[in-house]
Amino acid sequence: xxxxxxxxxxxxxxxxxxxxxxxxxxxxxxxxxxxxxxxxxxxxxxxxxxxxxxxxxxxxxxxxxxxxxxxxxxxxxxxxxxxxxxxxxxxxxxxxxxxxxxxxxxxxxxxxxxxxxxxxxxxxxxxxxxxxxxxxxxxxxxxxxxxxxxxxxxxxxxxxxxxxxxxxxxxxxxxxxxxxxxxxxxxxxxxxxxxxxxxxxxxxxxxxxxxxxxxxxxxxxxxxxxxxxxxxxxxxxxxxxxxxxxxxxxxxxxxxxxxxxxxxxxxxxxxxxxxxxxxxxxxxxxxxxxxxxxxxxxxxxxxxxxxxxxxxxxxxxxxxxxxxxxxxxxxxxxxxxxxxxxxxxxxxxxxxxxxxxxxxxxxxxxxxxxxxxxxxxxxxxxxxxxxxxxxxxxxxxxxxxxxxxxxxxxxx
Length: 412
Hints:
single chain, mainly beta, seven-stranded antiparallel beta sheet, five-stranded antiparallel beta sheet, 3 helices, 43% strand, globular
């Protein structure tokens, strides 16, 4: 059988003008025009050539089957606690999407029957594409907000599910971005929308049962270098609106008990300075790169009734000073310990800090080399830390999948 001849794209003269004089020749510039029939014809010829040379379908099937041998299709993640429930996800052999589940914690310490919070396989039924962008269980555990994308354009449809009945509420909001947060009383839902460049730039609040035309625009970021994201503090006390660019950040917060209030700026943005905040009891924990701390330092300051972004850090104490050899990655406060993730000697390490004495201890792992990340934790009162780690083998044989496990913190 003769070897197929690859198609050759015709050259068409085109010169990019140089503002400093001269120009740059680009004979294939015409290929950027998606509407040009000649471009379509050439791409189809490329696809036909690929099929003929690689016998694409046969190779795709072989690769797919090999991938499956390296994946534990039926699997379950370690549970984490939020409110009265233990939440986890599971996958089932033959199903493409994740199933989100929970079990109620019973008074005797046991767990009740499994409840399916959301089965993405059901959401995807009848659609060629389905991606769950975000989901958030309300503080009472009775409602679920979720955003799903059916087109691949990352414009999501936001729905709310009654977890007691399994029914969808009438509330429906289109074209939302990633990021969902609930008020403490389950009446108000916060979400983000995007501009023409797909940049999340507006924060809105929606009161359940009301028309979306009545939704309030809470915050708008006009600087096109910055985008918005939503989060909440570990204890659920504050909703956080994070404003970030590549090298600069700013955080606004509002009490989850006061959804109709305006967000307050924690400290104003400063070019080249990144920071993030958490709270523990009556104090803010601030991870910041201010003062040329490129690897970040950890500060602590009191939560004031009258917040002033200009002076909030004036009384701050340094808990972990800047270290050129150690990069601080995140801070997660639990009731008994403050968990600090850092990278040192090329490895992510977990340090447990006593919030009273500031004494730190490292969590040890049996592997000499590993990749580690913290998984979902949403209950500051419970001393449980969930991690996922895997051991990188030689480059040609990444055979070990992530291995989730839980580490229980000592009681306070």
